[in-house]
């Protein structure tokens, strides 16, 4: 009796593994990360694509106050940068955050394109959309590389 229960459980596990394997084979999801460093500043961009169409983008930028003209302190940076961030608040599919430190600030952005409307994302659709209106991974990677970004090997 216990043997029959064991075979049923083993069959169930094999069936589950088969479904997971088939699901993984059916998806052509790819994740790439690129980074650009200049002095004390850096930006890292991660793109997630499904069948070459970008479905998610995230970036983390670290910017020193010394690199911004007219900014000498955390308070100066907050006064200058915070108002420019306000239009990005409350956009569906966009998570935007600023973190002001003593000598730099960290900006994090995450866009879920399955939720976000690119028309609501200032400047982003002009940067990444190809002529068909799709967010194409190949075009985005080419643009990043032309700007000096280097691929981060994972």
TrEMBL record:
It comes from Oceanobacillus neutriphilus. This is Lipoprotein Lmo0207. Gene3D superfamilies: YehR-like (3.30.1830.10). Pfam families: DUF1307. Keywords: Lipoprotein, Signal. It comes from the Bacteria. SUPFAM superfamilies: YehR-like. Residues 1-23 form the signal peptide.
């Amino acid at each position: 009796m216990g043997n029959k229960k064991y075979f049923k459980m083993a069959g169930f596990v094999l069936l589950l593994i088969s479904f997971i394997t088939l699901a993984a084979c059916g998806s052509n999801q790819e994740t790439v990360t690129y980074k650009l460093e200049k002095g004390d500043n850096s930006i890292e961009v991660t793109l997630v694509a499904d069948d070459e169409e970008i479905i998610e983008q995230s970036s983390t930028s670290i910017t020193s106050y010394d690199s911004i003209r007219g900014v000498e302190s955390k308070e100066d940076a907050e006064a200058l940068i915070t108002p420019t961030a306000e239009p990005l608040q409350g956009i569906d599919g966009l998570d935007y955050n600023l973190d002001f430190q003593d000598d730099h600030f960290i900006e994090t952005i995450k866009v879920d394109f399955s939720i976000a409307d690119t028309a609501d994302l200032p400047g982003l659709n002009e940067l990444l959309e190809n002529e068909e209106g799709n967010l194409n991974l190949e075009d985005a990677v080419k643009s990043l590389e032309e700007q000096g970004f280097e691929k981060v090997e994972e």
